Amino acid sequence: MSLGITLPSPAKLNLFLHIVGRRPDGYHELQTLFQFLDYGDELTFTLTPEQPGVRLVESVPDVPDDDNLITRAAKALMEHNGEELPGVTIAITKRLPMGGGLGGGSSNAATTLLGLNYLWNLDLSIDQLANIGLDLGADVPVFVRGHAAFGEGVGEKLTNANPPEDWFVVIKPACNINTGKIFSEQGLTRNTPRIKIAPAFEGDASRYRNDCEGVVRELYPEVNQSLEWLSKFGPARLTGTGACIFGRFPTESAARIIWESKPSGVTGFVAKGVNVSPLHTKLTELK
Ligand SMILES: C[C@@](CO)(OP(=O)(O)O)[C@H](O)COP(=O)(O)OP(=O)(O)OC[C@H]1O[C@@H](n2ccc(N)nc2=O)[C@H](O)[C@@H]1O
Ligand SMILES: Nc1ncnc2c1ncn2[C@@H]1O[C@H](COP(=O)(O)OP(=O)(O)O)[C@@H](O)[C@H]1O
């Protein structure tokens, strides 16, 4: 039995995000296109049969270990299994900004579900893992399923999609944005007409937008400034409820030229959009 494994925990982008209505419980109904990036965090799982329970090698800043989505995902799997499982120690290499709209926490939860399903030999199906993941956050199922997708509902009804695998310049403006705050803003656009069929997306990106962008630009001048700068070079957009924004480029060199010309003090990275999650690529190699 393998005692340890290191797995990627990639970022996602919302290539578009439309708010098409509201559920009776107040949650917003979305239509969104998720794509992964070949850039993200990394998690290392080491089984500790002599020491039961779940431990993090290092805490994530401002997140108590018991609230960390990694710990919660591991405990949810233990609970689902019902019987005692070997203890595990988990090390995190954090690269994704938190609360940036890149889904880092949700991705960490999904990597934990798939990684421990493998290490603990639980043999749970992707559907079972996606269901366990949905209780942890609306974005967890797409990371569990591992394919770019058109998402509906709160993002949990997923249809595989194949948007172009472009290169992205991702910028993290110097502010943190709380998802709940944006969804509670009065000025938020909440009535975008529903798209009836899963969009092909190719060549028609201008029909799609991020409905959170207007209120986020108004509330956070840092995001507005970054969007103004990046959109000089092509279409630029907010991911999720922000704060990160991205610009699409057809080649790596085109993206890197723009990245190198960024104003001083701007942080972010260049990455490729991928329709199969790097997590699933790695797990397939292992099996
Ligand atoms: C908007 C998206 C798009 O991918 O991404 P992020 O910006 O967080 O990455 C997600 O749907 C984020 O889903 P999730 O991660 O579960 O949201 P949470 O932070 O738990 O939501 C905080 C609060 O925002 C409100 N909320 C959230 C999602 C939604 N579809 N409608 C809502 O009204 C609810 O009041 C909720 O209590
Ligand atoms: N392992 C984790 N990594 C990042 N954030 C986490 C984690 N566990 C819990 N969180 C909490 O989830 C929030 C949302 O984080 P994240 O998923 O990275 O951003 P977003 O949902 O905006 O894409 C964080 O602000 C943090 O409080």
Give the CATH class: Alpha Beta
Mean of pLDDT: 94
CATH architecture: 2-Layer Sandwich
Record field, number of beta strands? 10
What distance separates the N and C termini?
Answer: 13 Å
Please work out how many helical segments DSSP would assign. 9
User: How is the main sheet built?
Assistant: 10 strands, mixed
Helix content range: 25-40%
The dominant shape is globular
Strand-residue fraction?
A: 25-35%
Short characterization:
With 287 residues, the chain is α+β, with helices and mostly antiparallel strands. Helices cover 29% and strands 28% of the residues.
List the defining traits of the structure above.
single chain; 287 residues; alpha+beta; globular; binds 4-diphosphocytidyl-2-C-methyl-D-erythritol 2-phosphate; binds adenosine-5'-diphosphate
Describe, in plain words, how this protein is organized in 3D.
The chain has 287 residues and is α+β, with helices and mostly antiparallel strands. It has one domain: Ribosomal Protein S5, domain 2 (2-Layer Sandwich). Helices cover 29% and strands 28% of the residues. The longest helix has 16 residues, at 104-119. The model has no long low-confidence stretch (mean pLDDT 94). The chain binds 4-diphosphocytidyl-2-C-methyl-D-erythritol 2-phosphate and adenosine-5'-diphosphate. 4-diphosphocytidyl-2-C-methyl-D-erythritol 2-phosphate (SUD) is lined by residues 14, 26-28, 30, 32, 101, 103, 137-139, 154-155, 179-180, 183, 240-241.
